[in-house]
Request: fold
Amino acid sequence: MKAMILAGGMSTRLYPLTRQVPKPLVPVAGEAISAHLMRWLRSFGIEEVAMNVHYLADEIRERFGDGAAYGVKLTYLHEEALMGSAGSLKTMQSFFGNEPFVVVGCDDLTDANLDSLVQFHKKQNAIATIGLVRADEVDQYGVVITDKDGRIVEFQEKPPKGTERSKLVNTGIYVFGPEIFDRIPADTFYDFGKNVFPALQAESAPFYGLQLNGAYWRDIGTPDEYRRATNDVLSGKITLRGVMARGISKDAHLGNDAHIDGDVRVGANVHLGDRVRIIGPSVIGDGVRIGDDAVIERSILWDDAVVGARAIVRDSVVGIDYAIAADTTLTDEIVANGEPVAS
Reply:
Protein backbone atom coordinates (compact mmCIF):
# COMPACT_ATOMS: atom_id res chain seq x y z
CA MET A 1 0.00 0.00 0.00
CA LYS A 2 1.11 3.56 -0.79
CA ALA A 3 0.30 6.92 0.77
CA MET A 4 0.32 10.64 0.03
CA ILE A 5 0.97 13.46 2.46
CA LEU A 6 -0.85 16.62 1.38
CA ALA A 7 1.69 19.36 2.07
CA GLY A 8 1.26 22.06 -0.54
CA GLY A 9 -0.55 24.71 1.50
CA MET A 10 0.86 27.94 2.88
CA SER A 11 -0.26 27.35 6.49
CA THR A 12 -1.31 30.98 6.89
CA ARG A 13 -3.07 30.16 10.16
CA LEU A 14 0.35 29.72 11.76
CA TYR A 15 1.76 33.04 10.53
CA PRO A 16 4.19 34.54 11.32
CA LEU A 17 5.89 31.25 12.23
CA THR A 18 5.44 29.74 8.77
CA ARG A 19 6.65 32.71 6.74
CA GLN A 20 10.13 31.19 6.80
CA VAL A 21 9.26 27.58 7.57
CA PRO A 22 7.01 25.60 5.19
CA LYS A 23 4.14 23.68 6.72
CA PRO A 24 5.67 20.17 6.43
CA LEU A 25 8.70 21.35 8.44
CA VAL A 26 6.80 22.85 11.40
CA PRO A 27 8.53 21.25 14.40
CA VAL A 28 6.71 19.23 17.03
CA ALA A 29 9.01 18.38 19.90
CA GLY A 30 12.06 19.10 17.78
CA GLU A 31 11.09 17.12 14.67
CA ALA A 32 9.20 18.19 11.55
CA ILE A 33 5.51 17.24 11.57
CA SER A 34 5.80 15.39 8.26
CA ALA A 35 8.72 13.35 9.61
CA HIS A 36 6.43 12.14 12.39
CA LEU A 37 3.84 11.23 9.74
CA MET A 38 6.30 9.29 7.61
CA ARG A 39 7.40 7.22 10.60
CA TRP A 40 3.74 6.64 11.51
CA LEU A 41 2.94 5.46 7.98
CA ARG A 42 6.00 3.20 7.93
CA SER A 43 4.89 1.57 11.19
CA PHE A 44 1.90 0.18 9.26
CA GLY A 45 4.07 -1.18 6.48
CA ILE A 46 3.71 1.73 4.06
CA GLU A 47 7.06 2.19 2.36
CA GLU A 48 6.22 4.40 -0.65
CA VAL A 49 4.99 7.91 0.09
CA ALA A 50 4.23 10.84 -2.20
CA MET A 51 4.25 14.47 -1.04
CA ASN A 52 3.08 17.54 -2.93
CA VAL A 53 5.20 20.62 -2.26
CA HIS A 54 4.85 24.24 -3.27
CA TYR A 55 5.97 26.93 -0.83
CA LEU A 56 9.70 26.70 -0.04
CA ALA A 57 9.77 23.38 -1.88
CA ASP A 58 13.57 23.21 -2.05
CA GLU A 59 13.83 23.42 1.74
CA ILE A 60 11.44 20.50 2.10
CA ARG A 61 13.40 18.40 -0.38
CA GLU A 62 16.68 19.24 1.34
CA ARG A 63 15.33 18.23 4.76
CA PHE A 64 13.60 14.99 3.79
CA GLY A 65 15.71 13.86 0.83
CA ASP A 66 14.58 10.49 -0.50
CA GLY A 67 12.80 9.64 2.77
CA ALA A 68 15.24 6.90 3.76
CA ALA A 69 15.92 8.50 7.15
CA TYR A 70 12.24 7.95 7.97
CA GLY A 71 11.98 4.45 6.57
CA VAL A 72 10.16 5.32 3.35
CA LYS A 73 10.81 6.02 -0.31
CA LEU A 74 9.63 9.59 -0.88
CA THR A 75 8.35 10.87 -4.23
CA TYR A 76 7.71 14.60 -4.67
CA LEU A 77 5.12 16.45 -6.69
CA HIS A 78 6.30 20.04 -7.08
CA GLU A 79 3.23 22.12 -7.84
CA GLU A 80 4.09 25.38 -9.54
CA ALA A 81 0.44 26.33 -9.05
CA LEU A 82 -1.62 24.68 -6.33
CA MET A 83 -4.24 22.26 -7.66
CA GLY A 84 -6.24 21.65 -4.48
CA SER A 85 -6.23 18.56 -2.28
CA ALA A 86 -7.94 16.36 -4.87
CA GLY A 87 -6.33 17.99 -7.90
CA SER A 88 -2.84 17.23 -6.60
CA LEU A 89 -3.86 13.64 -5.93
CA LYS A 90 -5.14 13.30 -9.52
CA THR A 91 -1.72 14.37 -10.81
CA MET A 92 -0.20 11.40 -8.95
CA GLN A 93 -2.68 8.83 -10.28
CA SER A 94 -0.02 6.70 -11.98
CA PHE A 95 1.95 6.52 -8.71
CA PHE A 96 -0.89 4.68 -6.94
CA GLY A 97 -1.82 2.09 -9.55
CA ASN A 98 -4.92 -0.02 -9.00
CA GLU A 99 -4.78 -0.64 -5.25
CA PRO A 100 -6.34 1.19 -2.27
CA PHE A 101 -4.13 3.89 -0.78
CA VAL A 102 -3.93 6.35 2.12
CA VAL A 103 -4.01 10.15 2.07
CA VAL A 104 -3.22 12.29 5.11
CA GLY A 105 -2.79 16.01 5.69
CA CYS A 106 0.58 17.21 6.91
CA ASP A 107 -1.11 19.08 9.78
CA ASP A 108 -2.07 15.80 11.45
CA LEU A 109 -0.36 14.50 14.57
CA THR A 110 -1.72 11.05 15.33
CA ASP A 111 -1.11 7.53 16.57
CA ALA A 112 -4.31 6.16 15.02
CA ASN A 113 -4.47 2.49 14.07
CA LEU A 114 -4.30 2.82 10.31
CA ASP A 115 -4.76 -0.92 9.82
CA SER A 116 -8.26 -0.78 11.27
CA LEU A 117 -9.25 1.99 8.86
CA VAL A 118 -7.86 0.14 5.85
CA GLN A 119 -9.54 -3.13 6.85
CA PHE A 120 -12.89 -1.39 7.32
CA HIS A 121 -12.53 0.31 3.93
CA LYS A 122 -11.92 -3.02 2.22
CA LYS A 123 -14.72 -4.78 4.10
CA GLN A 124 -17.20 -2.12 2.96
CA ASN A 125 -15.86 -2.20 -0.60
CA ALA A 126 -15.76 1.58 -0.28
CA ILE A 127 -14.60 4.20 -2.74
CA ALA A 128 -13.62 6.51 0.12
CA THR A 129 -13.36 6.13 3.89
CA ILE A 130 -12.68 8.93 6.37
CA GLY A 131 -11.02 8.38 9.74
CA LEU A 132 -13.10 10.02 12.49
CA VAL A 133 -12.43 10.92 16.11
CA ARG A 134 -14.84 12.02 18.80
CA ALA A 135 -14.34 15.54 20.18
CA ASP A 136 -16.15 17.39 22.96
CA GLU A 137 -15.93 20.73 21.15
CA VAL A 138 -16.49 20.50 17.40
CA ASP A 139 -17.16 24.10 16.36
CA GLN A 140 -13.70 24.40 14.78
CA TYR A 141 -13.86 21.15 12.82
CA GLY A 142 -15.65 19.46 9.98
CA VAL A 143 -18.34 17.30 11.56
CA VAL A 144 -19.40 14.00 9.96
CA ILE A 145 -22.77 12.29 10.41
CA THR A 146 -22.98 8.57 9.62
CA ASP A 147 -25.70 5.95 9.70
CA LYS A 148 -25.50 2.79 11.80
CA ASP A 149 -23.32 1.08 9.20
CA GLY A 150 -20.84 3.95 8.99
CA ARG A 151 -22.08 5.31 5.66
CA ILE A 152 -21.66 9.09 5.55
CA VAL A 153 -24.99 10.88 5.23
CA GLU A 154 -24.12 14.48 6.03
CA PHE A 155 -21.36 17.00 6.77
CA GLN A 156 -21.38 20.12 8.94
CA GLU A 157 -18.49 22.55 8.57
CA LYS A 158 -17.58 24.22 11.89
CA PRO A 159 -21.14 24.17 13.29
CA PRO A 160 -21.88 26.77 16.00
CA LYS A 161 -21.97 25.28 19.48
CA GLY A 162 -25.25 23.56 20.14
CA THR A 163 -26.09 23.03 16.47
CA GLU A 164 -23.81 20.05 15.79
CA ARG A 165 -25.52 16.82 14.79
CA SER A 166 -22.52 14.69 15.66
CA LYS A 167 -19.41 14.74 17.81
CA LEU A 168 -17.37 12.94 15.16
CA VAL A 169 -14.84 15.08 13.32
CA ASN A 170 -12.95 14.57 10.08
CA THR A 171 -9.30 13.85 10.81
CA GLY A 172 -8.11 14.33 7.24
CA ILE A 173 -6.96 10.69 7.23
CA TYR A 174 -8.48 9.00 4.19
CA VAL A 175 -8.42 5.63 2.47
CA PHE A 176 -9.38 5.66 -1.21
CA GLY A 177 -9.98 3.03 -3.82
CA PRO A 178 -8.56 3.67 -7.29
CA GLU A 179 -12.12 4.49 -8.46
CA ILE A 180 -11.73 7.86 -6.74
CA PHE A 181 -9.74 9.11 -9.72
CA ASP A 182 -12.86 8.82 -11.88
CA ARG A 183 -14.40 11.53 -9.69
CA ILE A 184 -11.53 14.03 -10.11
CA PRO A 185 -11.04 15.93 -13.38
CA ALA A 186 -7.51 16.32 -14.72
CA ASP A 187 -5.74 19.67 -14.81
CA THR A 188 -8.39 21.30 -12.63
CA PHE A 189 -8.27 22.84 -9.17
CA TYR A 190 -10.34 20.39 -7.15
CA ASP A 191 -10.93 19.92 -3.44
CA PHE A 192 -12.05 16.92 -1.41
CA GLY A 193 -14.26 18.83 0.99
CA LYS A 194 -15.86 21.17 -1.53
CA ASN A 195 -16.06 18.95 -4.62
CA VAL A 196 -15.32 15.25 -4.24
CA PHE A 197 -17.07 14.41 -0.97
CA PRO A 198 -20.36 16.25 -1.72
CA ALA A 199 -20.50 14.48 -5.08
CA LEU A 200 -19.97 11.05 -3.50
CA GLN A 201 -22.68 11.77 -0.97
CA ALA A 202 -25.09 13.04 -3.62
CA GLU A 203 -24.75 9.88 -5.72
CA SER A 204 -25.04 7.59 -2.67
CA ALA A 205 -21.66 6.09 -3.48
CA PRO A 206 -20.03 3.65 -1.02
CA PHE A 207 -18.60 6.44 1.13
CA TYR A 208 -17.91 5.66 4.78
CA GLY A 209 -16.50 6.97 8.04
CA LEU A 210 -14.94 4.97 10.86
CA GLN A 211 -14.42 6.18 14.40
CA LEU A 212 -10.77 5.56 15.35
CA ASN A 213 -11.37 4.42 18.91
CA GLY A 214 -8.56 5.19 21.32
CA ALA A 215 -6.63 7.24 18.79
CA TYR A 216 -4.78 10.43 19.54
CA TRP A 217 -5.30 13.06 16.84
CA ARG A 218 -4.76 16.77 16.63
CA ASP A 219 -4.57 19.20 13.72
CA ILE A 220 -1.60 21.46 14.51
CA GLY A 221 -2.61 24.06 11.93
CA THR A 222 -3.59 26.77 14.42
CA PRO A 223 -1.43 28.28 17.18
CA ASP A 224 -3.64 26.99 20.00
CA GLU A 225 -3.77 23.47 18.61
CA TYR A 226 -0.05 23.53 17.89
CA ARG A 227 0.70 24.38 21.51
CA ARG A 228 -1.73 21.75 22.77
CA ALA A 229 -0.14 19.09 20.56
CA THR A 230 3.33 20.01 21.79
CA ASN A 231 2.20 19.83 25.41
CA ASP A 232 0.58 16.44 24.74
CA VAL A 233 3.86 15.10 23.36
CA LEU A 234 5.82 16.43 26.33
CA SER A 235 3.38 14.92 28.83
CA GLY A 236 3.42 11.53 27.10
CA LYS A 237 -0.20 11.65 25.93
CA ILE A 238 1.09 10.56 22.53
CA THR A 239 4.30 8.62 21.96
CA LEU A 240 6.31 9.59 18.89
CA ARG A 241 8.63 7.21 17.08
CA GLY A 242 12.34 7.77 16.55
CA VAL A 243 12.73 11.03 18.47
CA MET A 244 13.59 12.29 21.94
CA ALA A 245 10.23 13.72 22.97
CA ARG A 246 11.57 15.22 26.20
CA GLY A 247 14.82 15.38 28.08
CA ILE A 248 18.18 17.07 27.49
CA SER A 249 20.39 16.33 24.50
CA LYS A 250 23.82 15.02 25.40
CA ASP A 251 25.61 17.85 23.61
CA ALA A 252 23.59 20.65 25.21
CA HIS A 253 25.62 23.03 27.35
CA LEU A 254 24.08 24.01 30.68
CA GLY A 255 25.58 26.96 32.51
CA ASN A 256 26.24 27.15 36.21
CA ASP A 257 23.11 26.83 38.32
CA ALA A 258 20.84 26.41 35.29
CA HIS A 259 17.51 24.99 36.43
CA ILE A 260 15.07 22.88 34.39
CA ASP A 261 11.72 21.89 35.87
CA GLY A 262 8.78 19.93 34.44
CA ASP A 263 8.25 18.45 30.99
CA VAL A 264 11.00 20.01 28.87
CA ARG A 265 12.86 19.09 25.71
CA VAL A 266 16.30 20.68 25.20
CA GLY A 267 17.64 20.04 21.70
CA ALA A 268 21.08 19.50 20.22
CA ASN A 269 23.81 22.14 20.46
CA VAL A 270 21.78 24.30 22.84
CA HIS A 271 23.68 26.74 25.02
CA LEU A 272 22.10 27.78 28.32
CA GLY A 273 23.80 30.57 30.23
CA ASP A 274 24.32 30.77 33.96
CA ARG A 275 21.23 30.71 36.20
CA VAL A 276 18.84 30.14 33.28
CA ARG A 277 15.45 28.78 34.36
CA ILE A 278 13.29 26.66 32.05
CA ILE A 279 9.85 25.65 33.28
CA GLY A 280 7.78 23.12 31.39
CA PRO A 281 5.98 22.34 29.33
CA SER A 282 8.63 23.88 27.08
CA VAL A 283 10.62 22.94 23.98
CA ILE A 284 14.06 24.42 23.30
CA GLY A 285 14.95 23.71 19.67
CA ASP A 286 18.35 22.78 18.28
CA GLY A 287 21.03 25.45 18.33
CA VAL A 288 19.13 27.80 20.65
CA ARG A 289 21.20 30.18 22.78
CA ILE A 290 19.81 31.55 26.04
CA GLY A 291 21.67 34.24 27.97
CA ASP A 292 22.46 34.44 31.67
CA ASP A 293 19.52 34.81 34.08
CA ALA A 294 16.88 34.37 31.36
CA VAL A 295 13.60 32.63 32.18
CA ILE A 296 11.60 30.43 29.79
CA GLU A 297 8.16 29.34 30.99
CA ARG A 298 5.68 27.16 29.10
CA SER A 299 7.09 28.19 25.73
CA ILE A 300 8.35 26.77 22.44
CA LEU A 301 11.60 28.05 20.92
CA TRP A 302 12.30 26.94 17.36
CA ASP A 303 15.80 26.13 16.12
CA ASP A 304 18.56 28.73 16.42
CA ALA A 305 16.48 31.24 18.35
CA VAL A 306 18.44 33.57 20.64
CA VAL A 307 17.22 34.84 24.01
CA GLY A 308 19.18 37.67 25.56
CA ALA A 309 20.35 37.89 29.15
CA ARG A 310 17.62 38.45 31.78
CA ALA A 311 14.84 38.13 29.18
CA ILE A 312 11.59 36.46 30.24
CA VAL A 313 9.57 34.37 27.77
CA ARG A 314 6.20 33.08 29.02
CA ASP A 315 3.47 31.17 27.19
CA SER A 316 4.96 32.09 23.83
CA VAL A 317 6.24 30.60 20.58
CA VAL A 318 9.49 31.96 19.14
CA GLY A 319 10.23 31.29 15.48
CA ILE A 320 13.36 30.02 13.77
CA ASP A 321 16.44 32.28 14.06
CA TYR A 322 14.46 34.89 15.98
CA ALA A 323 16.40 37.04 18.47
CA ILE A 324 14.90 38.37 21.70
CA ALA A 325 16.82 41.30 23.15
CA ALA A 326 18.24 41.31 26.65
CA ASP A 327 15.86 42.43 29.43
CA THR A 328 12.78 41.85 27.23
CA THR A 329 9.58 40.33 28.62
CA LEU A 330 7.46 38.33 26.20
CA THR A 331 4.09 37.00 27.40
CA ASP A 332 1.55 35.06 25.35
CA GLU A 333 3.12 36.08 22.04
CA ILE A 334 4.00 34.44 18.74
CA VAL A 335 7.06 36.05 17.21
CA ALA A 336 9.07 35.27 14.09
CA ASN A 337 11.17 36.99 11.48
CA GLY A 338 8.86 38.78 9.10
CA GLU A 339 10.22 38.33 5.60
CA PRO A 340 9.72 34.93 3.93
CA VAL A 341 12.52 33.13 2.17
CA ALA A 342 12.17 33.44 -1.63
CA SER A 343 10.08 30.57 -2.94
The first strand starts at residue 2 and ends at 6.
